[in-house]
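Translate structure to sequence.
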């Protein structure tokens, strides 16, 4: 399965970017202050994996969409492909934090709205602090 009929890659990117930006804007100041840029990128990438998972069940296509997203957002890098490969591996394993964040991405795609990431940010912060 590819994207829903009539949706282009660039439209998928725009929708995902707008959703991620709206989700990030809903984070409380205290949450943003405690999450490093790197950790924020990780959480956002996991969230977008779930978002793209709701758009397509084609894993290779989802990986390409996510790499393109990272390239556009953070600059093209071999690290982006490596990061996405690690995410795809994580999606096949049991990782409750990853699963929760990806599920929020899927929920955001299906339901719209912009508070799903904020709802799990506290859990994410607690895990970061305790590791």
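Result:
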């Amino acid at each position: 399965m590819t994207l829903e009929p009539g949706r282009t890659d660039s439209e998928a990117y725009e929708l995902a970017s707008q959703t991620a930006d709206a989700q990030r804007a809903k984070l409380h100041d205290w949450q943003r202050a405690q999450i490093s840029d790197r950790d924020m990128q990780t959480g956002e990438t996991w969230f977008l994996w779930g978002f793209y998972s709701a758009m397509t069940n084609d894993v290779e296509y989802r990986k390409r969409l996510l790499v393109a997203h990272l390239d556009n957002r953070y600059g093209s890098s071999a690290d982006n492909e490596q990061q996405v490969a690690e995410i795809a591996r994580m999606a096949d394993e049991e990782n409750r934090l990853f699963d929760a964040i990806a599920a929020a991405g899927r929920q955001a795609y299906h339901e719209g709205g912009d508070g799903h990431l904020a709802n799990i940010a506290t859990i994410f912060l607690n895990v970061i602090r305790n590791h």
